[in-house]
Design goal:
The complex is a heterodimer. The longest helix of chain A has 27 residues. Chain A has a single domain, classed as 3-Layer(aba) Sandwich (Rossmann fold). In chain A, the strands form two sheets. Chain A has an eleven-stranded mixed sheet, sandwiched between helices. By secondary structure, chain A is an alpha/beta fold. In chain B, strand 8 and strand 9 form a beta hairpin. By secondary structure, chain B is an alpha/beta fold. The relative contact order of chain B is 0.13. The N and C termini of chain B lie far apart (72 Å). The chains are: A alpha/beta, B alpha/beta. Chains A and B meet through helix 8 and helix 9 of A and helix 1 and helix 9 of B.
Chain lengths: 366, 478
């Protein structure tokens, strides 16, 4: 694509983002449609969002979103009045100890995964085929989201139960054999499902569980490919370039497609740039703009985006009808990447735990 | 700059991510080291049985000859390392520059490793109690006394999760290849040098490269080695040792809390042993599990502490390249500061006196921009009660503790090396029976004077092999 064509796409995406920002602000800060939390919070601001936020850049007028606001109830304060009659889900993140962060959701998890579905190649994720969901369940949204993705594509999702909080507890106790036993328990269930004639062709798995599943199948003289799986998406900061390469070259082989994703309960799902040998397994993510935006910002000034290629902390914005998050500092860092033809806005690569938290963060437990 | 690959059953593997090994004083990058991931290790270990099959194509005697040759290569040759080479002098300089151990101590450790390799036949003979070594290869055989014995290998490979800060520990895995067991090494991030050099020395001495894996990498690599090797050793602190306590697959090596114990019959001659005490505390900059961290006696403890403080207190850091450089540097940011703060708090306890401060002419903690030193410290404890009476740090630190002889064995706790100065036969019997002492020296032996023909923290033969019944004829009727 020529520079001019890409520049036009960038300009159009920016225009769309600004318009989406204005609509989001109108929705969340209008008395008729906004949620009690933001309508109350508005009173503390020295500016009127409805008048003074007219483009995406204007979101920097808001103070950073504090994740503590998501801990504890009442959960209804997050339900926009404009959606008050809808059935509400609550999904949690964290929560190994103390009160977890809660996010109320109505349909966002469906919309996010339907949008993500559009990025999946039908060749490897055949429409109508069944799915295996090998990741955390319980109060997390992932199970319902992946299940909806399968249904959206005409398939049925088989799930394995997994409680990451229990795994974190075992790790903190140093109970390595307990962790191993639990992982074996989970993988055994996945192997059983795959062997039961359900015609499963697609899967979601975390990198660790996918690795364990592939090795278990190898021990049984089988493989992911021979089990019938053609396409996999996986996510998490453990999805490193080295793991990507190992996965493609040694775990899966050339006929199984895998794509990395980056996301969380607040944001939705950022897609990986399509695999290109020239990237040398570098993984670049693009947020699902305009519903969510990722910026890579200076460690010392969270309102300042770093230059392309430079390292910064991940700053997240969510702008859906259900949730408004104007600048949430994620627990990750990475390098700012140039826009891509398919995703004409900034990306991020090399995501990893934010260095100031890294020593105390337990990552990749499932 | 050196670029060092992962080794997967003898094959170099270049990873996407690399770690930088830097000079602790200057920050200069000495090497980039490719990084394994846990999955690679788990994948490779599915072929671990090949290592033992390959090694059993040689006799143990042949492998001992190769170990002898490897000793010379390791100690004297310029060997390939990644995309470059490394001479013995470069090895010592680099090891010093990344671990903080003075160069002459690195050379000393090198000599020790080479000694063990060179004397492998004697070492194996001692550790097996004279077992005909082909029995280990074949699995069974008749001893000269006419008894059928059988030893079964419990693993095809030994996994080693190695530390960064203590190059002395490598002697422990030297006998593994001669015992026809493959080696899976996960080097400490700051000390890749010995595993790679030893791998190259063995290979050039004739050991097939296919029996070695070297996996530099993060904590997930250590976990994968421990998970997939049926026998593994790990080095760490007390929590690591406690975590693997009772796990027959893992031998965890941690602090030694090694001590010198004076019997009442000899304590009045304590002045004769001041050299023995000082060297036990001070050798290798106190950075070993076999370094003495406690001297226990029923009387004269104040004088002993005073004499040791006078000897050790004035010692100050010198450049790493100085042949008399006495102290290792702390290269992990904040570690020395934290230890110093902890000691300051501990010596405030009732009954504790820091004796070395007055001989030091300065602070214990010598801080530099990128590294620190802790100068030798001697404390006196008037009883066994204070917490500092039984501690160990990674620098020359010793507590001189007043304790009745009759109470010592119940108070010393787990002790890796106890050098006991006594001729009292009754007490000697009690010392021999004390299961909380691992290596027992009765006589004038420094805690750091190890005879490599003796087992260390468990006999590696017992760790790798299981003695079991084997019969190929009917037993005599009874």
């Amino acid at each position: 694509m020529s520079d001019t064509a890409l520049a036009a796409k960038l300009a159009k995406a920016k225009e769309l983002l600004d318009e989406h920002t204005r609509q989001t602000i109108r929705w969340h800060f209008s008395d008729a449609t906004g949620c009690p939390f933001w309508l109350e919070k508005k009173k503390e601001f020295k500016f009127d969002p409805l008048k003074e936020v007219n483009c995406f850049e204007d979101l920097k007028k808001f103070p950073n979103f504090e994740d503590e606001w998501l801990r504890g109830g009442p959960i209804r304060r997050w339900v926009p009045k404009g959606l008050a009659d809808k059935p509400v889900y609550v999904f949690e993140t964290g929560g190994t100890t103390g009160i977890p962060k809660s996010r109320m959701v109505i349909e966002d998890h469906w919309i996010d995964y339907e949008n993500f579905s559009d990025t999946l190649p039908d060749e490897y994720f055949p429409r109508g085929s069944n799915w295996l969901m090998l990741g955390p369940s319980g109060p997390r949204r992932l199970r319902l989201a992946v299940e909806h993705l399968a249904q959206h594509r005409g398939g049925i999702c088989f799930c394995v139960d997994l409680d990451p909080r229990w795994v974190v507890k075992l790790l903190k106790k140093g109970d390595i054999s307990g962790v191993k036993a639990y992982a074996d328990h989970v993988i055994d269930q996945a192997v059983t499902i795959l062997s039961a004639g359900h015609d499963i062709k697609c899967a979601f798995a975390t990198p660790k569980l996918l690795e364990a599943l592939a090795l278990k199948l190898m021990d049984k003289g089988c493989s992911i490919e021979e089990s019938g799986i053609k396409g996999i998406f996986a996510g998490g900061t453990e999805f490193t370039p080295q793991w990507y390469r190992f996965c493609r070259e040694e775990l899966l082989g050339p006929n199984v497609y895998i794509t990395p994703t980056y996301g969380n309960t607040l944001m939705g799902l950022a897609c990986g740039k399509p695999f290109d040998p020239a990237d040398n397994f570098k993984i670049t993510y693009y947020a699902p703009q305009p519903r969510a935006v990722i910026e890579t910002v200076e460690f010392e000034d969270y309102n300042q985006v770093v230059p392309y290629g430079a390292t910064g902390r991940v700053k997240l914005y969510t702008m859906t009808k259900e949730l408004f998050v104007p600048g949430f500092m994620e627990r990750d860092e990475g390098e700012r990447e140039l826009p891509h033809d398919k995703y004409p806005w900034d990306g991020i690569s090399g995501t990893r735990p934010f260095h100031e938290f890294a020593a105390t963060t337990t990552v990749g437990v499932y | 700059m050196l670029d060092i690959p992962v080794i997967r059953w003898g094959q170099p593997y270049e990873s996407m991510e690399k770690d930088k090994v830097v000079h602790f004083e200057t920050g200069e990058v000495l090497a980039t080291v490719h990084q394994a991931n846990g999955g690679i290790i788990k994948m490779d270990m599915r072929k671990a049985n090949k290592a033992r099959d390959i090694l059993r194509q040689f006799s143990i005697d042949q492998l001992c000859s190769m170990a002898e040759k490897a000793a010379d290569l390791y100690q004297n040759a310029t060997l390939p390392l990644g995309n470059g080479t490394q001479s013995p002098a470069e090895f010592c300089r680099m090891q010093s520059a990344t671990t903080g151990l003075p160069e002459h101590m690195c050379a000393g450790n090198m000599k020790k490793n080479a000694y063990v390799l060179r004397n492998m036949r004697h070492t194996l003979e001692a550790l097996t109690r004279g077992l005909p070594l082909e029995i280990l290869t074949k699995g069974y055989g008749m001893e000269s006394r006419g008894v059928m014995v059988s030893y079964q290998a419990q693993t095809n490979v030994l996994g080693m999760v190695l530390p960064s800060n203590s190059p002395g520990v490598h002697t422990l895995w030297m006998p593994v290849i001669p015992l026809q067991i493959g080696l899976v090494l996960k080097p400490g991030p700051q000390e890749p040098w010995t595993p790679y050099r030893m791998y190259e020395a063995f290979a050039q001495a004739g050991v097939p490269r296919e029996v070695f894996c070297v996996y530099p990498g993060g904590p997930e690599c250590g976990a994968a080695v421990l998970e997939t090797c049926n026998r593994a050793m790990i080095f760490g602190g007390t929590p690591t040792v406690e975590r693997y306590h009772g796990n027959p697959r893992v031998q965890a090596h941690g602090p030694g809390f090694s001590k010198i114990l004076f019997g009442d019959d000899m304590v009045d001659q304590w002045e004769k042993y001041i050299d023995l005490m000082a060297e036990s505390v001070f050798a290798n900059s106190g950075r070993s599990c076999i370094s003495c961290s406690g001297i226990w006696a029923s009387r004269h403890t104040e004088e002993i502490a005073e004499a040791l403080a006078k000897r050790l207190g004035p010692i100050a850091p010198l450049p790493m390249s100085d042949p008399k450089s006495p102290l290792a540097a702390f290269t992990v940011p904040g570690a020395a500061k934290a230890i110093n703060a902890q000691i300051k708090e501990l010596v405030e306890a009732p009954g504790v006196t820091e004796v070395s401060a007055k001989y030091r002419n300065g602070e214990r903690h010598v801080a530099h921009e990128r590294y620190d030193f802790l100068r030798p410290t001697v404390v006196h404890c008037s009883s066994t009660e204070p917490a500092v009476a039984n501690t160990e740090y990674m620098f020359p630190f010793v507590s001189v503790v007043k304790c009745e002889q009759k109470d010592m064995l119940s108070k010393i706790g787990g002790t890796l090396v106890a050098s006991c100065l006594t001729k009292d036969e009754n007490w000697s019997k009690q010392l021999l029976d004390a299961t909380n002492i691992d290596r027992l020296n009765i006589g004038e032996v420094k805690t750091i004077q190890l005879h490599w023909m003796q087992p260390h923290e468990g006999n590696i033969i017992d760790f790798l092999f299981r003695a079991r019944a084997f019969q190929n004829t009917q037993p005599p009727s009874h």
